[in-house]
Amino acid sequence: MNWLDTILQGVLLGGLYALFAAGLSLVFGIMRLVNLAHGDMIVLAAFLILVLVTTLGLNPFIAALIAMPLMFAIGWALQYFLLNRTLGKDILPPLLVTFGLSIVIQNGLLESFSADSRRVFAGSLESASVNLGPVTAGIMPLMTFFSAVTVIVCLNQLIYRTSVGRAFRATSDDPVTAGLMGIRPQRIFAMATGLAMVVVTIAALYLGTRANFDPTSGPS
């Protein structure tokens, strides 16, 4: 049953990559903004969780809950005060700004934490597993996969069944017309990036508990 185990592990690993992609696709889908610093934001969130765990002695999942509003605020501020100024018909300004942001984050983390690899320890969950018939799956990979499914379903419901989601879709289609209807595109864009940073924090939690990371892990 090695082939079945390989397929299962590939699907579960795909859940982690789905979390990585969810925040990026949210920003690109609404603003058509290619964020080259997305990976670095994931690593930044992982280091934030690590700091909360090591300094306050918190459980990693509790630390992630605390990190979420902080990352939302960081994403909201970056979009509202910086990235909104780069949006337009030319795709080059956002690429240049986010590339520079990537370098700033990497070097800031290197200065603060050095180049050593780190890991967020989740205790017994790291080695816990469950039998699924002929194969065995780890608890953490399963949690990662189901978290990815939950995030995608919640984002779908938010976008298609709420007033905020309608504002997202309207602004994505035509920000000028949306503005005439009373929607403020700059704030909608900032909210979308803040929401993407919440997803990034969830991805960072599972990245930090399943693999080693360092300040240069973002681009890879």
Features:
mainly alpha; two-stranded antiparallel ribbon; 8 helices; 4% strand
Structure overview:
The protein contains 8 helices and 2 strands. By secondary structure, the chain is mainly alpha-helical. It has one domain. Helix 2 (38-56) packs parallel to helix 4. The protein starts with a helix and ends in a 10-residue tail after the last helix. The mean pLDDT is 89.
List the helices and strands and how they pair.
Elements: H1 2-31, H2 38-56, H3 60-81, H4 92-113, E1 129-132, E2 135-138, H5 139-161, H6 163-173, H7 175-180, H8 185-210
Antiparallel strand pairs: 1-2
Task: Give a quick rundown of the structure.
The protein is mainly alpha-helical and 220 residues long.
Structural class: mainly alpha
How many structural domains are formed by the residues?
A: 1
The unreliable regions are none
Helix content: over 70%
How many DSSP H or I helices? Answer: 8
Largest sheet: 2 strands, antiparallel
Shape: globular
- Mean pLDDT across residues: 89
Radius of gyration: 18 Å
**Order of strands across the main sheet:** 1-2
Distance between the termini: 32 Å
DSSP summary, beta strand count: 2
Tell me the series of helices and strands, N- to C-terminal: HHHHEEHHHH
Give the amount of beta strand, in percent: under 5%
